[in-house]
Design a protein that fits this description.
This protein has 5 helices and 2 strands. It is mainly α. Among the domains are: 78 residues, no CATH class; 54 residues. A two-stranded antiparallel sheet has the order 1-2.
């Protein structure tokens, strides 16, 4: 799998590197050649290795993928906006990484259905977004998301875990100053159906 990832990443980055080299060559042609063009050249020591323009980018300038934010690294984005990088090469690199990672996840899922971390994440997002059943079945067929049954099982598991976390946070010994006081009064929400049919329509729920 690492070989496949590197192969896909290199293929996706090939066009971006060619565009970068073209831009650099155009910029060099427009630079005035005073003193034979040697005045602005840096002094390179013989022991210093010369890296090519196709070397990998510095990891510090590549922004992190917001999809992988956790409770530990979310504080790094406190006060900052998650925006796209202005550097086209950085955007090209992130796109190539996403393509290679997604393709490898599809191949791993096709070989073993237990390798479904990416598919479960996509399935939960598709379920929350209201993607139709027919579209989900097609995405599951090509290995981009899990089945509907697996998605609901994962949703129930996440709900139980969230319930345990809330109960532990609001225990008396954990919150002696601020006791739990969560109450939703007159809660109204609608279960919207995108494709209405007989026995399959939108419903409104009321409760406290």
């Amino acid at each position: 799998m690492p070989f496949l990832y590197k192969l896909l990443f290199a293929k996706a980055m090939e066009k971006g590197m060619e565009d970068l080299e073209t831009q650099n060559n155009d910029a060099d042609d427009e630079t005035p050649e005073d003193d034979g063009g040697l005045a602005d050249l840096p002094i390179i020591d013989e022991a210093t290795p010369v890296t090519s323009s196709t070397s990998s980018l510095d990891e510090a300038i590549v922004p992190k993928d917001p999809v992988w934010l956790t409770q530990r690294n979310v504080s790094e984005y406190d006060g900052y906006a998650l925006a796209k990088s202005k550097d086209p090469l950085v955007r090209k690199r992130l796109r190539a990484e996403t393509i290679a990672r997604t393709t490898c996840a599809m191949v791993a899922y096709a070989a073993n259905r237990r390798h479904n971390a990416s598919q479960l994440s996509n399935s939960l997002m598709f379920l929350a977004a209201g993607v139709t059943k027919r579209v989900r079945e097609y995405l599951n067929h090509i290995g981009l998301c899990s089945s509907r049954k697996t998605t609901h099982a994962a949703l129930q598991s996440l709900g139980k875990e969230a319930e345990i976390n809330i109960k532990s946070k609001f225990k008396t010994e954990n919150s002696p100053i601020l006791p739990p006081s969560i109450c939703y009064d007159n809660l109204d929400f609608q279960q919207n159906v995108h494709m209405a049919s007989v026995g399959h329509a939108s419903m409104m729920f009321h409760g406290t």
